[in-house]
Design brief:
Elements: H1 9-19, H2 42-64, E1 72-76, H3 80-89, H4 103-111, E2 116-124, E3 128-135, E4 140-144, E5 147-151, E6 157-161, E7 171-173, H5 191-202, E8 209-215, E9 218-223, E10 228-232, H6 237-247, E11 257-259, E12 267-269, E13 279-283
Parallel strand pairs: 1-3, 4-7, 10-11
Antiparallel strand pairs: 2-3, 4-5, 5-6, 7-13, 8-9, 8-13, 9-10, 11-12
């Protein structure tokens, strides 16, 4: 630079570049992140612990007092008789806090009822215990002398009833020495008949059904008209009954025999099938 004070072009460019640089300050710890700023203040910690204490205190009060005590047991999905049985089993929960109810224990007690196949327990605050039930539906009445029991399609014994009750259900006649126990199935020889009972609740056979017979070759449904419908082996009972319901209206008058033991090839005849002696196990009407 001469005495006249002129500045060279290169010097001006360097000055502009240097003026564009912004110096960054560093903390005393160098390049490390300043963690002090992330630590909550004492006031925040006090507020957090206060909220936690209130929540725990509220939970304790709800469990140990009557704030959420069970006052009602609501049973869903069951007929009146089963509803009363379930409420009786779960009655011990009344007065207990909903937060303290042992749902698994109640479900186990309800499922142990002969009239129930599945159950689940829910809480409906503030005071209701809801029990959803899948009941065992009766399809017939097992009779042994003067005693009578409702039975399911799997021959499960549901409950004892008055012999004159449930007149609309078919009767299954048992020898006097046949063992009958609530919640257990009848001897296996009776299950095919109760399965027919269950099938007849779902499939309407034209004409009134009078009885169910058993033969060495299988099951026979007897109508009041005298027509016999041979089901054969106790398999695919619902399918066989459905085929019989479809074919029966197509039969000519005078047909007395319909064989649906092979559902794909039903056979009809004016003559009853010659069978060896059969046994009447059940009647549809009392």
């Amino acid at each position: 630079m001469a005495g006249g004070g002129r500045t060279e072009p290169g010097s001006r460019r360097r000055a502009r570049a240097e003026s564009a640089v912004v110096p960054l300050t560093r903390s005393a710890a160098g390049d490390r992140l300043d963690l002090v700023r992330l630590v909550p203040s004492g006031r925040s910690l006090v507020a957090a612990f206060a909220i936690l204490a209130v929540a725990l205190g509220g939970y304790w009060v709800a469990r140990e007092t009557s704030v959420f005590a069970v006052r009602e047991i609501e049973v869903r999905g069951a007929p009146p008789q089963v509803t009363r049985e379930v409420q009786r089993v779960a009655r011990s929960a009344v007065g207990t806090s909903l937060l303290d109810v042992d749902a698994a224990a109640i479900e186990g007690s309800v499922r142990a009822l002969p009239s129930v196949t599945a159950a689940s327990v829910d809480r409906a605050f503030p005071h209701t215990l809801v029990i959803r039930v899948a009941p065992v539906w009766p399809v017939g009445v097992a009779r042994r002398g003067d005693d009578a029991w409702l039975v399911s399609g799997s021959s499960r014994v549901i409950r004892k009833i008055d012999p004159r009750a449930e007149q609309g259900l078919p009767r299954l006649w048992l020898p006097r020495k046949t063992p009958v126990e609530l919640g257990r199935s009848l001897p296996t020889s009776y299950e095919p008949v109760t399965r027919v009972f269950g099938g007849l609740r779902e499939v309407r056979i034209p004409g009134r059904v009078k009885a169910v017979r058993t033969t060495p070759t299988g099951l026979v449904v007897v109508l009041h008209s005298g027509v016999e419908i041979t089901l054969g082996a106790p398999t695919d009972i619902l399918v066989k009954l459905a085929v019989a319901a479809e074919v029966s209206p197509l039969l000519d008058d005078g047909m007395l025999y319909l064989d649906v033991s092979v559902p794909e090839r039903p056979v009809a005849s004016r003559y009853l099938n010659s069978q060896v002696e059969s046994e009447i196990l059940a009647t549809i009407e009392p």
